[in-house]
Specification:
Number of strands: 5
Number of helices: 28
Distance between the termini: 25 Å
Shape: globular
Strand order of the largest sheet: 1-3-2
């Protein structure tokens, strides 16, 4: 790599930290300036991205806790408000899920037990989200963190559903972060088979109509997971697949589930005699990693045909083979190359950058480490003018990094993100959080950012607003913002102007 002038190195260091990373901490731009690209490339590791600090339950632990809840507490919620309570309930006061309280003592006791059990299950989501934000605000590997967050959003398993809410932390730690610099098909398989995804998209309820279980019970196929894999996670709606392809894929996926009882089997210990034990064993299925179970008894028998390819009835492998083929199709490479470019560089990304990323994807067989290095090497990714608007989470994280602090209270973090329109871990749909300026730069959204900036500026411990702005933005700090900060009438106003400046709001 050619030696660059010091001022160019300084500018590229600011770009590396603010566009590729999560924002600059005090002194980071000077440290990275020696070789910004090398700093980025060093974060592309086979081990994946770092996980947040702290001891949190695994998905296997959470599966057992969920099954215990279902076994010990009536599954029907008392109110509509309680039915929709996800991790936001855990981040609120203990009465967050209270709705129509029963008046009799027995009903009140059941209500309280149900509320307490739900909150115990979702409380970990609040604590884990704080740990995740603390990692983002302190990590020296900002690019690896941003890359991991991109893929977590791509494979969204939202906490808007209670069942998936209790798994969102384990999902990101187990299925996303370890695989973000590996093969895309490996990442996709880990994400789609995780309990968070299986419950969020109702795959655990899907039963082949002609399966053993389907013939005995009034249950049927659920196409949610198959549809979202094709439309959102892999080839996209432009790939030309049909509704028949979605249905066939859904049939191939039947059997993907989670344990149904605390002992690992559906109906285990409840049925009597040899026949009951045999059924319980059949329903228990084949246990996989992270709480995944494959149940042959609900798998739709027969050969499948998806996007012109035939798949033999190979049980669990049938759905896995379809998924791997979708992950390796050229439509997936093209679509995700554009999505990566749009996330890191511009809402309408440079065509040359998309081509370069697609080529890296295709020639490497979907090796995400190769794609990440292609992004780092692309000259289009280093254009000085920032084009992306930070999401509320990115804004808060980068502000903490600029001040050299980290969030300490989950309630304050939650309230800030909720006010700015991005409640923690609760993307409104399987599409994940939007990623364009139009979604985050509306007038009301900017007012909410201004309110948070004023409150944060009033409590900032940093000594010098001018030095803070220079350390956070480096060569990206423009003369107008520099003068506005230096001429502010108060220290709090100076910090507010810095946080709300176009340079800081964009990356």
């Amino acid at each position: 790599m050619r030696n660059m002038p010091q001022n160019e190195n300084s500018l590229n260091a600011a770009i590396a930290l603010t566009r590729f990373g999560m924002g600059a901490r005090p002194g980071e731009i000077d440290r990275v300036a020696a070789n910004p690209r090398e700093w980025l490339e060093a974060q592309v590791r086979a081990s994946g991205a770092a996980v947040p600090r702290g001891e949190f339950p695994s998905s296997t632990d959470q599966v057992q806790a969920l099954l215990a809840y279902r076994q010990d507490v009536p599954d029907r919620p008392t109110s509509r408000r309680e039915a929709g309570a996800g991790p936001e309930a855990a981040m609120n006061t203990p009465t967050a899920v209270e709705g129509n309280r029963p008046t009799d003592p027995a009903g009140q006791a059941a209500f309280d037990a149900r509320r307490d059990s739900r909150q115990a299950l979702t409380r970990v989501a609040a604590e884990a989200f704080l740990a995740r934000a603390q990692l983002a605000t302190t990590t020296p590997d900002g690019f690896a963190e941003r890359w991991a967050l991109f893929w977590a959003n791509h494979f969204t398993a939202s906490a808007t559903k209670f069942q998936s809410a209790i798994f969102v932390d384990a999902y990101e730690r187990e299925a996303i972060r370890p695989h973000v610099f590996g093969r895309f098909e490996t990442l996709a398989l880990a994400a789609e088979q995780h309990p968070a995804m299986l419950l969020y998209l109702d795959q655990a309820q899907s039963v082949g109509p002609n399966s053993i279980a389907g013939k005995r019970r009034n249950v049927g196929l659920n196409e949610n997971l198959a549809r979202e894999i094709m439309e959102l996670h892999t080839v996209g709606s432009d790939a030309g697949y049909s509704q028949a392809d979605v249905t066939e894929f859904a049939r191939a996926l039947t059997g993907w589930s989670i344990p149904a009882e605390r002992d690992g089997g559906a109906g285990g210990g409840r049925g009597g005699g040899r026949r009951g034990r045999a059924m319980a064993q059949a329903l228990a299925g084949e246990t996989g990693r992270n709480g995944f179970v494959y149940r042959p008894v609900v798998h739709e028998p027969g050969e499948r045909r998806v996007l012109g390819r035939r798949y033999a009835d190979s049980g669990r492998q049938q759905g896995e083979t379809v998924l791997k083929d979708l992950a390796n199709r050229p439509e997936t490479a093209r679509r995700l190359a554009r999505k990566i470019a749009a996330h890191f560089v511009a809402d309408v990304p440079p065509a040359a950058l998309v081509v370069a990323l697609e080529r890296a994807w295709t020639t490497s067989g979907g090796d995400l480490s190769v794609v990440a290095r292609a992004l780092i090497a692309a000259p289009e990714a280093w254009e000085p003018a920032p084009a992306k608007i930070k999401t509320p989470y990115e804004f808060i994280v980068s502000a903490h990094r600029a001040f050299g602090t980290e969030p300490r209270q989950v309630q304050a973090l939650r309230q800030a993100m909720l006010a700015m329109g991005q409640p923690p871990q609760s993307a409104p749909s399987p599409e994940g959080w939007p990623d364009t300026a139009a979604d985050w730069a509306g007038p009301d959204a900017l007012v909410k950012r201004l309110d948070w900036s004023r409150a944060t500026a009033s409590m900032a411990q940093a000594a010098d607003p001018n030095a803070t702005a220079a350390a956070a933005l480096g060569s990206r700090l423009g003369d107008r913002t520099r003068q506005a900060v230096s001429r502010a009438e108060s220290r709090a106003e100076a910090f507010t102007l810095f946080l709300m400046s176009p340079e800081f709001q964009r990356r």
